[in-house]
């Protein structure tokens, strides 16, 4: 009796008090990942073939293994076991043999503070967990494992035979294929089961003006409930985009949250047309048109005071129409500049630029990098009663009180350029152009910025220096760009580490930190963090933070833009003027514990250091025959490179050498030895020479080995020539 009580106590500790002992398949169905009909089909096949229900669903193509792992990890706070990287502790591995492990598809990993950590294929198999707890007399904590990795672990740690190993992995035979093929046949009706809980009391389609579309019949109630459920579930989970994509044998629904796409549902292919038509009706689109893309908008009320917009895009694909809906929730729009992720120095530069009376401010980055949010934050900060603000957008994502927003409609001739022309007659102080796409729009925006207006716009480029090149390539003269431009902001969005499960990462090799972009002297103080993963986050991440690069157009930068220098040189000058690159800003956020190294490396590029401006664009001087270049005894420190012609070297009035090879350096000895000039150099005929600052010679030799090699080679060549001359003089007979 005492043993029985001990077993019950051990198992009681295993299961959390708030855990509902539902099977994984039922949880997947209730959450909308699979339908009731799909589950029933899988259960029927399981009765015939055996095996875990999850793998039957995977084999039928109704869900993926990664989708199951993500669901269990997020919804049940059960971590994922990385068996390819983790090895079980020897004391834990001894607790049960392969036969017991195979029966429950489990592997003991470690004993942590008196609790047995077990990796399982199905951590919702509470009967198996209870048996493990009873056998080991220990409370059990589970992790979910991939079947293939579990089988590999069995082979490695239990030394099982190849036959046992193959028996662990499901093999699809001819009979399975026939069953699967039969299941693809169209059904007379589709049973949606309980994929969506009752949402009719929570959801109300906001009535649009002039909505004369016919009502959906009563027979389509399940479909209406499904679409409504997909929308409401997305709103409740805080996702940014919904992707509904048809493929050859199935249709899947994916949510994008914090920048990452996750599959949440697999739907029967037979319902693709009805589902797309329902969305088109809600978005007021043409349900009969399936050949060309269509864009629309859905507005739903999720409460009495909360309205959420969905920007709908329909695109014809090979197996049907793909639908993407972007959620535009005004309640989640962050327009507080202090909360976007700017460092204090970057925020000061940004505020200084947007408070300027005139000029052009550009925000650049890929789609989905938060450009619109940054622009909205800027004009919202400037939105006062005494300022008139006009915007041209495609589409208008959010409405602001006190700002005149214009929806660009290319089909009727209302383009960005046409809107801009009209704006200038509306007497605005501030203009926002959604995107500069062509020369006409760019030219009007530049001229508006040069004639007393503050203009905001966006471009699709990688970083700030590339933005300047892009505007010039569009056709705007460099002098106009340098005159109008006051600030460029390049940005990305990085996933933010969950504050509830943040932990420090130990043992990162110094080489990895150096390759990421940290300096050697920074390494002792670098601390890297990650999210362990918990019930309130998404695999260790929760929310996103902005990653910014700001290039304020100072006088040196304006001169460089007008001179149309290359991107590398422009970047060098900008960094010298105080620009923090995207990679460096990301590294700073890593140290502050905001994001991870993986996020920074995946979203930013470490720019290889280009040659400095003094090496790329030195002064070029032209000398005529006999002109003096270097005077013996002088204390100047410049060094030179011959481009064209020839030079004569004299010492104490006697010729000691010549320089005739283009590319040779000379004059470097005075800079290296910090001594006066030891010889005189004059032009032999007409010559062209580059002049470099002598105080940069040591830096050049230390940092640019190719140039250092050429300098040393030139020096050795002159020494050899001098030796030959001395040898010839020594061979002459005495007089």
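-> sequence recovered:
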């Amino acid at each position: 009796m005492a043993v029985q009580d001990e077993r019950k106590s051990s198992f009681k500790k295993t299961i959390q008090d708030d855990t509902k002992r539902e099977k994984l398949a039922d949880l997947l169905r209730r959450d909308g990942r699979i339908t009731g009909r799909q589950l029933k089909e899988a259960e029927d096949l399981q009765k015939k073939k055996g095996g875990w229900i999850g793998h039957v669903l995977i084999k039928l193509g109704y869900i993926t293994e990664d989708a199951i792992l993500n669901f269990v990890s997020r919804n049940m706070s059960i971590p994922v076991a990385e068996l390819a990287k983790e090895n079980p502790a020897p004391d834990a591995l001894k607790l049960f043999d392969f036969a017991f492990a195979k029966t429950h598809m489990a592997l003991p990993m470690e004993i942590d503070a008196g609790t047995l950590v077990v990796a399982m294929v199905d951590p919702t198999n509470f009967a198996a967990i209870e048996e493990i707890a009873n056998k080991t007399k220990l409370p059990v904590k589970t992790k979910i494992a991939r079947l293939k990795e579990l089988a590999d672990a069995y082979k490695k740690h239990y030394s099982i035979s190849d036959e046992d190993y193959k028996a662990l992995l499901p093999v699809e035979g001819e009979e399975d294929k026939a069953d699967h093929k039969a299941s693809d046949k169209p059904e007379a009706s589709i049973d949606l089961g309980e994929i969506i809980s009752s949402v009719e009391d929570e959801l109300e389609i906001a009535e649009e003006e002039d909505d004369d579309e016919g009502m959906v019949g009563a027979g389509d109630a399940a479909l209406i409930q499904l679409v409504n459920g997909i929308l409401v579930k997305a709103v409740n989970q805080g996702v940014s985009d919904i992707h509904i994509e048809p493929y050859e044998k199935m249709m899947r629904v994916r949510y994008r949250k914090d920048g990452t796409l996750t599959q949440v549902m697999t739907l029967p292919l037979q319902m693709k047309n009805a589902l797309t038509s329902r969305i088109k009706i809600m978005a007021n689109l043409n349900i009969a048109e399936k050949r060309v893309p269509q864009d629309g908008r859905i507005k739903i009320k999720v409460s009495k005071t909360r309205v959420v917009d969905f920007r709908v895009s329909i695109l014809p694909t090979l197996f049907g129409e793909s639908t993407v809906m972007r959620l535009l929730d005004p309640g989640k729009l962050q327009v507080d500049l202090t909360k976007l992720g700017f460092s204090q120095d970057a925020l000061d530069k940004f505020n200084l630029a947007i408070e300027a009376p005139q000029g052009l401010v550009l925000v650049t980055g890929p789609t989905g990098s938060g450009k619109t949010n940054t622009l909205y934050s800027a004009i919202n900060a400037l939105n006062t009663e005494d300022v008139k603000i006009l915007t041209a957008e495609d589409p208008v994502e959010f409405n602001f009180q006190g700002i005149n927003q214009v929806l660009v409609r290319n089909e009727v001739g209302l383009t960005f350029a046409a809107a801009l022309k009209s704006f200038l007659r509306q007497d605005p102080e501030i203009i926002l152009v959604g995107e500069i796409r062509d020369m006409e729009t760019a030219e009007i925006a530049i001229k508006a910025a040069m004639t007393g207006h503050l203009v905001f716009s966006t471009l699709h480029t990688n970083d700030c220096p590339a933005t300047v090149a892009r505007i010039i390539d569009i056709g705007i003269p460099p002098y106009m760009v340098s005159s109008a431009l006051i600030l460029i902001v390049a940005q990305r969005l990085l996933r933010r580490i969950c504050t509830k499960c943040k932990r420090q990462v130990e043992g990162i090799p110094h080489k990895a930190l150096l390759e990421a972009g940290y300096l050697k002297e920074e390494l002792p103080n670098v601390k890297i963090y990650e999210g362990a993963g918990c019930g309130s986050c998404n695999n260790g991440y929760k929310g996103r933070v902005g990653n910014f690069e700001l290039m304020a157009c100072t006088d040196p930068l304006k001169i460089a833009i007008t001179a149309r220098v290359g991107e590398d040189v422009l970047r060098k000058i900008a960094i010298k003027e105080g620009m923090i690159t995207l990679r460096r800003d990301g590294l700073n956020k890593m140290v502050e514990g905001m994001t991870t190294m993986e996020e920074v490396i995946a979203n930013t590029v470490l720019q290889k250091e280009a040659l400095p401006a003094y090496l790329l664009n030195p002064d070029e001087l032209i000398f005529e025959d006999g002109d003096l270049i270097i005077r013996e005894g002088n204390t100047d420190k410049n060094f030179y490179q011959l481009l064209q012609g020839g030079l004569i070297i004299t010492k104490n009035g006697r010729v000691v050498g010549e320089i005739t090879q283009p590319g040779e350096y000379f004059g470097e000895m005075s800079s290296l030895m910090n001594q006066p000039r030891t010889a005189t150099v004059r032009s032999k005929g007409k010559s062209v020479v580059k002049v470099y600052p002598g105080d940069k010679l040591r830096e050049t030799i230390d940092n640019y080995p190719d140039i250092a090699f050429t300098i040393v080679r030139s020096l050795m060549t002159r020494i050899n020539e001098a030796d030959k001359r001395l040898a010839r003089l020594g061979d002459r007979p005495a007089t």
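The radius of gyration is 35 Å.
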